[in-house]
Amino acid sequence: MPPQFEALCPPPQLLPGENIDHYYAVQAAIFCDINPQSAVEWLLAIDVAELSWEMQRYRVLRHRLLNTYRQKAIEMTLRRVDLAGVIPEFRDIAETYTMTNALDWQLDASAARDIEARLETHGFDQHAISMEVYVQAREIILLFESLLNGAQLRRLLLLKEINNVRRSTIVNGAGARSRDEASSQ
After folding, report:
1. Which member of 42, 86, 101, 154 lies 3.0 to 4.6 Å from 36 by CB, making a disulfide possible if both were Cys?
2. DSSP classification of residue 18
3. What is the pTM (predicted TM-score) of this model?
4. Residue 184: its pLDDT value, please?
């Protein structure tokens, strides 16, 4: 970025766990592709880079959220398997056991394999568990889709605005050259 435009670019507001080098790599790639020439183009390019980073953030957060819901889906599915036929006096103990198994599934790879194999014997394969994840997370998934779509739309509008600025610069430049040529004759 040319030094005269550095004041236009605020420092990144990263969340814990986000990598500043990755942020600057995304920003540099965007700036390279857009190749802004004026202050207005730099402002628009900065916003495009910010929105691009925001979209990546939403995708990462959505993925992490789905993993969290996966544990809940495992727990829900274990309830269907483990609590079927349990007499009411032992239901609380069985619930605790089910919650512990779901936590073990998340923390222990060996336990996860055993639990998944046990669930599969009862007809709950990875697709059935994924379906349960999406059922449980449907509202939050819609939120992330809305955030992604909104950021994408704003980014597209900014790119269109950059093109409009460039076209008006070309048209204004051509008009100025015509006037200069006419006045020199």
Report:
1. 42
2. -
3. 0.75
4. 60
